[in-house]
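Input set for joint prediction.
Command: fold jointly, output tokens.
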Amino acid sequence: MENSQSVRLVGFWVSPYVQRVKWALKIKGIEYEYIEEDIFNRSPLLSQINPASGKVPVLVHDGKPIPESPIILEYIDEVWKHIPLLPQDPFERAQVRFWGKFLDEKVFDLGSWLVLCSEGEKQARAVNVAIEALEKVEEQLRGKSFFGGDTIGYLDLIMGFVSYLLPIWEEIAQVKIFDPLKFPGIAAWTKNFLNHEVIKAENLPSKDEMLRYFQWRREVLIPIYAS
Amino acid sequence: MENSQSVRLVGFWVSPYVQRVKWALKIKGIEYEYIEEDIFNRSPLLSQINPASGKVPVLVHDGKPIPESPIILEYIDEVWKHIPLLPQDPFERAQVRFWGKFLDEKVFDLGSWLVLCSEGEKQARAVNVAIEALEKVEEQLRGKSFFGGDTIGYLDLIMGFVSYLLPIWEEIAQVKIFDPLKFPGIAAWTKNFLNHEVIKAENLPSKDEMLRYFQWRREVLIPIYAS
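tokens >
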């Protein structure tokens, strides 16, 4: 399907899951071809490389497709071993995987994302889930530049959406989840993350475009999440 | 907290997540102490070793606690490398992780488990999710003894609940998800799995006890999942 040694990333411009993979490839200095997918009108390519879920991102390495951003990050780290994203020690790796899952489930899916896609009591519950989860994340980050200490890694990329997308979702949903005074560790991390040379160099979509896109998603998804 | 070289498993008698870890330890021939936890009245030990989620299983190895069954299986495989549970090739590992996540999300959480904890239209939707997911799993298993070919591994342990627990949930919820005629690959796998010497040697709870426990869970959880 592909040329030898080729790296392709099939993505969608505003997806925070795709953004993680872009960051990881940039950190490792891996050159790749980016292919924009219309996730609302899926191409034959996407059905072919990810028939099970049909989601982006999919990394296609030498013709072999790998879906799901946390799995892609581990794959990248196993194939290109320089500048490691995960620690080598099995216990530390397990902790990183635990917090990655925690961030994706509690801070993202059942927290921030559900806040964006709901209203009323359901939204209030999701706000609480997100805040309680951030309290636990705060304990992990307090006094450190990044999750792993001084260098950026797997958990920072998983958490990345908190730095630039959560404020957009809060603005659209008209709620407050991330209070910098309550979460000084996360507030400091946000600055460190956005000022990291690789993260700074990767262009994010403009605030206006993100506001427009997620405002529309909120309107479409509220009735679906309510059922 | 613990003696050197000690392996402890904190679990709950009927949890399919705990069962996976018991199987993995048995396959590797690792001796361990099992500690039964009352998950409805959590001990100080559990709050100490898993403050973030408070869930079982937790593997405590030389005093270091590792929660979440998929993460524990990877940890066990990284520390005790004989009789590998995951393949060594990065692409094959990524595929195993993808299907593990797929099984846990689609076949378990949003499928079978939600079927047990819901009724009416919500239940009908969950039945469909489970069946559509099993269709994709069937393609993976057709013509093979286990997911990885001839030997038991990570995905078989993740899928294990389908072999002994799904029939119980179906009976309680009075629905049919797993039709052996429609899923001959999974039907053959179920036999291979339950007849594997390690799986056969690990005692499962009795059918009566499981029926009684999950009947009660269904009654308690229906209103919670409906809100």
